[in-house]
């Protein structure tokens, strides 16, 4: 059980930071890759990590039935928002570029409208993973360190894998579909594992 749990936590870390590099490739044809673009992109992802962690912490303290509903809702939201990005991301960016002529405004709308929700939804599960380990007997401080340490290793792997192995060899559109498929499998597995924390 625990090896599968750690694998899923690592994969979610890969998805989160790898998605940031894919987002930069989506933005590049419309806005370039200047420091301003990266500032908006990084700030959006950090805000999503922050809000997702806080909402995930709130969900983790709900009664078991409500917590399970929150977990399923978070997983569905992550998958649907990633699907929207994969299917309509380029189209939406083209429309935003036309409607909002001021670059910072267009970047704000693009980052919030296309990238914020998927990352927020993925971030919901960090606190719940901590609670899962704590419910299996791991001290809370140690559980937090393990989950966020493993997740950060996944973040590093996501950056390196996406930058050096995937983006140079595959179209971004293909990679977004890959991200979507992996998200479906990993979130379904994680929701199933988290339900075990409600077992006596």
Q: Which architecture does the CATH hierarchy give at level 2?
A: Up-down Bundle
Instruction: Report the end-to-end length measured between terminal Cα atoms.
Output: 16 Å
Q: What percentage of amino acids are in beta strands?
A: under 5%
Globular, elongated, flat, extended or rod-shaped: what is the shape? globular
Largest sheet: none
User: What is the helix content?
Assistant: over 70%
In angstroms, what is the radius of gyration? Answer: 17 Å
Tally of DSSP β-strands: 0
Q: Considering the protein shown, what is the CATH homologous superfamily?
A: MFS general substrate transporter like domains
Helix run count: 7
Q: Please tell me the total number of domains.
A: 1
- Return the structural class: mainly alpha
Compose a concise summary of this entry.
This protein is mainly alpha-helical and 200 residues long. It has 7 helices and no strands. It is globular.
Task: Provide structural commentary.
This protein is an all-alpha fold and 200 residues long. The chain has one domain (2-198): Growth Hormone, Chain: A, CATH 1.20.1250. Helices cover 88% and strands 0% of the residues. Helix 3 packs antiparallel against helix 4. The two termini are 16 Å apart.
Helix and strand topology:
Elements: H1 2-31, H2 35-60, H3 64-99, H4 103-123, H5 125-135, H6 140-166, H7 172-195
Helix pairs in contact: 1-2, 1-3, 1-4, 1-6, 1-7, 2-4, 2-5, 3-4, 3-7, 5-6
Features:
200 residues; mainly alpha; Growth Hormone, Chain: A; 7 helices; 88% helix; globular
